[in-house]
Amino acid sequence: MRSRFEPDRRLTGRMVLTMFLLGLLYVGFVGALIVLLDSLVLVVVIAAVLLGAQYWFSDRVALYAMRGRLVTPEEEPRLHGVIDRLCATADMPKPRVAVSGMDLPNAFATGRNADHAVVCVTTGLTRRLETEELEGVLAHELSHVAHRDVAVITIASFLGVLAGLVVRFAFYSQLFGGGRRDQNTAAVFAMVMLVSAVVYALSFLLIRALSRYRELAADRAAAMLTGKPSALASALTKVSGDIARIPTRDLRTAQAFNAFFFTPALGAGSTVAGLFSTHPSLDRRLEALAEISERLGGEAP
């Protein structure tokens, strides 16, 4: 899909490289396990079915989990008005618009492509942000759709589930399979567990690195489209500050959607933890927006 969002070849390259490396990782993983497990085909089929379901119905699943509902222009004129203007500026199809009644200030985009995309914001976000700030957040989410990274991160994130499924299948087949439990069987089981753990860890790190970069790319694209990096920086600062004041127990319910959120429900608390985070730190994002503002000749956020 072509749009007026600034093309990001580095993001495209990273998405291709990540999917290529994950593909190699899982081809080797499945090939090794075929030798170790008799019924691996069943696991792969189940994983493929679940992946297909997540790919085709990810928008519905996300809206249901976040208690979101589709809204009309009559119900949310301000929200639709901002998205209408941004889509006209970006020359891209308008996604469906949804609202979640959660007080957690956040937004996300999901869907397998631009024609089946949905942008959802929480009432906590619309209540806290000025129109220019809301415009920056929504431009950020629309750039995810334009760059196609929503579908890529959905597929990439799910591949790690295969390793977990294999571990469970191997465990229960040995526990209830009734086969001989000699030293060879124990060694095979240990190898399955070890290979699965390594594959999961490597895929986890690859996906997290891609996720952090795509957030920086979306910030950059949104700032260039709107020409207002300071408004996006203001929204980031405001949302991050308000999230920090929400009780942790309430944030944990939304943490599963961190990879899709505008800002994470629970952020990383240290440099090491940042390697496992879905988002760059607030300071890193503000620094990148300040650089864009300088290039545009505007006031640094």
Automatic annotation (TrEMBL):
<keyword id="KW-0472">Membrane</keyword>
<dbReference type="InterPro" id="IPR050083">
    <property type="entry name" value="HtpX_protease"/>
</dbReference>
<feature type="active site">
    <location>
        <position position="141"/>
    </location>
</feature>
<keyword id="KW-0812">Transmembrane</keyword>
<keyword id="KW-0482">Metalloprotease</keyword>
<feature type="transmembrane region" description="Helical">
    <location>
        <begin position="150"/>
        <end position="171"/>
    </location>
</feature>
<keyword id="KW-0479">Metal-binding</keyword>
<keyword id="KW-0346">Stress response</keyword>
<feature type="binding site">
    <location>
        <position position="144"/>
    </location>
    <ligand>
        <name>Zn(2+)</name>
    </ligand>
</feature>
<keyword id="KW-0378">Hydrolase</keyword>
<keyword id="KW-0862">Zinc</keyword>
<feature type="transmembrane region" description="Helical">
    <location>
        <begin position="12"/>
        <end position="34"/>
    </location>
</feature>
<dbReference type="Pfam" id="PF01435">
    <property type="entry name" value="Peptidase_M48"/>
</dbReference>
<dbReference type="GO" id="GO:0004222">
    <property type="term" value="F:metalloendopeptidase activity"/>
</dbReference>
<feature type="binding site">
    <location>
        <position position="215"/>
    </location>
    <ligand>
        <name>Zn(2+)</name>
    </ligand>
</feature>
<feature type="transmembrane region" description="Helical">
    <location>
        <begin position="186"/>
        <end position="207"/>
    </location>
</feature>
<feature type="binding site">
    <location>
        <position position="140"/>
    </location>
    <ligand>
        <name>Zn(2+)</name>
    </ligand>
</feature>
<comment type="similarity">
    <text>Belongs to the peptidase M48B family.</text>
</comment>
<keyword id="KW-1133">Transmembrane helix</keyword>
<dbReference type="InterPro" id="IPR001915">
    <property type="entry name" value="Peptidase_M48"/>
</dbReference>
<keyword id="KW-0645">Protease</keyword>
<protein>
    <recommendedName>
        <fullName>Protease HtpX homolog</fullName>
        <ecNumber>3.4.24.-</ecNumber>
    </recommendedName>
</protein>
<feature type="domain" description="Peptidase M48">
    <location>
        <begin position="73"/>
        <end position="292"/>
    </location>
</feature>
<dbReference type="GO" id="GO:0008270">
    <property type="term" value="F:zinc ion binding"/>
</dbReference>
<keyword id="KW-1003">Cell membrane</keyword>
<feature type="transmembrane region" description="Helical">
    <location>
        <begin position="40"/>
        <end position="57"/>
    </location>
</feature>
<dbReference type="GO" id="GO:0005886">
    <property type="term" value="C:plasma membrane"/>
</dbReference>
<dbReference type="InterPro" id="IPR022919">
    <property type="entry name" value="Pept_M48_protease_HtpX"/>
</dbReference>
<dbReference type="GO" id="GO:0006508">
    <property type="term" value="P:proteolysis"/>
</dbReference>
